[in-house]
Amino acid sequence: MADELTQIFLDESEEEIRELETGLIRLEEQGEDAETINRIFRAAHTIKGSAGLIGFEKVGNFTHTIENILDRIRNNQLKVTKKLISHLLESVDILKRMISASAEGEEIDSMVVEDITNRLKRFSGLEAPVEEAPVKEKKKFEERIFSIFMGFRPDLFLTGQDPLMLIRELADIGELLEVRPYTTTLPDFYTIIPTTCYISWDIRLKTKQPLSEIQNIFIFVADENTIRIADITDQYKGGVDMSLAEKPIGEILVERGHIRDEDVLEALKEHKTTGQALVEKGKVPKAVIDKVVKEQTESRKVVKTSTIRVDTDKLDKLVNLVGEMVISVARLSQLASEVRDEKVSRTLANANAALERISRDLQEQVMRVRMVPVEGTFNRFRRVVRDLAFEQGKKIDLKMSGTETELDKNVIEQIGDPLKHMIRNSIDHGIETPQERLASGKPEVGIIWLKAFQREGNIFIEISDDGRGINKDKLLNKAREKGLALPDKNYTDEEIFQFMFAPGLSTADKVTELSGRGVGMDVVKRNIEGLRGTVEVRSELGKGSTFTVKLPLTLAIIDGMMVKVGSEVLTVPLSVIDKSVRPKPEEVKTVEGKGELIDIRGDYIPLVRLYELFEIPTEKLDPTQALVLIVQSSKSRYGILVDDVLGQTQAVIKSIDKNFRKIDGTSGATILGDGRVSLILDIYGIERMAFEGGTEL
Question: Which residues are catalytic?
Fold first, then answer.
């Protein structure tokens, strides 16, 4: 039980520490904000209480010191300064080390803890340090969601006011989540008066502006019209107003201006539901009642939503079971095709089709359970940018978008280091010093964008900066010096930028603690390719660079193409296949120093014979009698020679490393419907195996 409690504490403290770190950096960037201060105070308080519960007394005592500082900030007894934030962030680093050491039954150096504790206590007096100015004097506000009802007197237009103008002003200070006009008071076409305002509006606004800014928009219409503004941030989730769950229908209708309070009182006298009574009395159309009921139902669903913490091992086992189900469905499909009795075969085929649909739906749901937002990973980089920018005397603003984008947990865990390295590169090589930026006509604050989005069944992550860009001529010259590029060949920009991922290549003028040694970017590319992903580079000298990482949604199940080589059945990921061709004799060329090439409409691409690479006996040695699959790697295209294509399949990826040695050129194995094992080809691994001897792609 103790081990279980410790593990729960470790998991929860990781989240709380992340909250602490993110909140402290937000305070430094945006100035003092009550909501952020309260949030990080609660995080520290939670860690302190949980640490005491499981017997981590030193962790609890140290966290108590941090909590005291945050409490003084919360009570306006201590000003937030850069120096204080730096001390608090350092204390968070030590707290992480203390928690890790305590879990292992160890301790960190007591002098380290005592030193930072004493420094924190020097800040815990009632007066702020006089030698330092606050981080930022201008206060910014957290993003909030407001409910706004606009009901107007009939002669509004005659006063020179326009509701649409007010709505546009609201859009200028935030994002309009909902704009609902209420048109129940509109008369018929023949009695309508154009100068009369009949319509009222219910609006949901997301904004970082305070309530006073919203009130200022209605300053000229507030007195004689019905304007109601309410902060519903805590009640609004997933596009649904959760406050509707417990509100009576009558109250909602009154708030929205459909009816008056006295109409509700009259309806309550009837021995019927409020909605039914109002409809029968002609007070509200049935369509309005149905809409409110629907909104209430959605709201109650959201309110009842709860979460539980599940061990990832259990999820992995569930994914494995779903994989076995996929394999069984494939086996059933094959059996159905082998049955000679037409009636039985048709029955089996129908049953298999239904089972296949269920299997795919179940697979999607299980995969969805494993998906987590990239926000947690992205937020970790705030600290990286902050610390490195300070060390190098640079001013950098890290902007993020698409943080709600979800990715498989296993991918999330493995993509952190490659992204971190690219961000460090952007800071070191990309963003200039404030003096350099001002001299080149740029703002002194450089910007790094971190974006995530989903497209075509893949996740894309972009790391962009507005720095100095990549000198492609310098990069190409370095590549030629290293023998990586031919001296007389013209390369495209895309091809030149790919040289930066070559081992040992660096264009840095000097070696720093961060870069310049020619190591790192090759590891980045290898790690991304290990996740079946790719990385592309775009850059313009003087304007900045963009690194685009393309990743699969999950690593567990892929759509694959089964191919035959000799007696072996191999699986090629469908996502890397461009086309399949059977070349004519004149399209197969042998070029000295470059091996075999296939002429694909004037484009000569290298040919890889799989039977040679994996030493598989086969009778189809002639490419004109076999098939060539054209595949796309991160570097370029090449063809792989196979005997035949057998068809598409859902491949459940099984690791073979635990029971067998790693096979070069493969990323795992899958079990076919007939029980045979099929190796899944790693296109990037095959590329390295086939061309590492210097063949030009």
Answer: 45, 67, 425
